[in-house]
Design brief:
single chain; alpha/beta; Rossmann fold; 2 domains; three-stranded antiparallel β-sheet; about 35% helix
């Protein structure tokens, strides 16, 4: 269990996007003057309509692509193990066991499975799959596959985890359960999360910062703080406070899309 976090805005800086532009080809501007200050311990949801550059922003932060203009800089010393990524699809290797899939980040850094077996087992235990280390992806449900993907992203205890709509394809019951589990995992390993979603309701439940992005070209249109303390439970989901926060986020999203509230 980590120590209580300082309030939003009073945490140490982790990463900054400054005046970032990303253009594809000669005329498709995905991001224009994107500015974002990420602080240690934040849970940030990037909320916006399809095509507003949310996933592009995540790929830029991950280093999978480079900005056309502007810069993205870590504010703390870091190494490759300090960044984990969870995609919309679990992207598991079908020929490998659950444990071997979770081992992948270490394997890419030249570490043998024997050397990190305890880390792999710890990660699987944290996502409730400690009894499935020898199973294959074809034997798992959609929710279990996503748990493996999350375990793989967190096995190195990264400073920052990027999540690109990881629960979008799941049924509502599974999605709610994984939302709950994700908050517990974040608290246990003390990481920072940037989470892409189309869902106002998901963003309010998970986040302490909601960054609302405008339609293309993508940029930050508004930022909302959800100051309800963690841990958050089903009681929060049915509270008047939650409803008010969802309304505020919905209004901000409609403004970003140029729609009347």
């Amino acid at each position: 269990m980590t120590s209580p976090l300082p309030p939003v805005g009073q945490r140490p800086d982790l990463l900054r996007m400054e005046a970032v532009n990303k253009t594809f080809g000669s005329d498709i501007v995905a991001l224009d003057n994107m500015n974002l200050n990420v602080q240690s311990g934040d849970f940030i949801s990037l909320l916006g309509p399809s095509g507003c550059g949310k996933s592009t922003a995540l790929r830029l932060i991950s280093g999978l692509m480079q900005p056309t203009q502007g810069r993205i800089e870590w504010q703390v010393p870091h190494d490759p193990g300090d960044l984990g990524v969870v995609f919309q699809e679990p992207t598991l290797m079908p020929w490998a066991t659950v444990a071997q899939n979770v081992w992948l980040p270490f394997r890419l850094r030249g570490k043998s499975y024997a050397a990190v077996r305890d880390d792999v087992r710890e990660a699987l235990a944290l996502v409730g799959l400690d009894k499935f280390e020898d199973a294959y992806p074809r034997e798992l449900s959609g929710g279990m596959k996503m748990r493996v993907s999350i375990a793989r992203a967190m096995v190195t205890h990264p400073k920052l985890i990027l999540m690109d709509e990881p629960f979008a394809a799941l049924d509502e019951i599974t999605r709610f359960k994984l939302n709950n589990d994700l908050l517990q995992l974040k608290e246990k390993i003390g990481c920072t999360v940037i989470f892409v979603t189309h869902s106002v309701f998901e963003s309010v439940f998970l986040s302490d910062r909601i960054v609302v992005m405008a339609a293309r070209p993508g940029r930050v249109q508004a930022e909302l703080t959800v100051d309800t303390p963690y841990p958050r439970s089903e009681e929060f989901r049915t509270s008047s406070e939650y409803a008010q926060q969802c309304r505020a986020a919905s209004d901000a999203l409609q403004d970003a899309m140029g729609m009347p509230a």
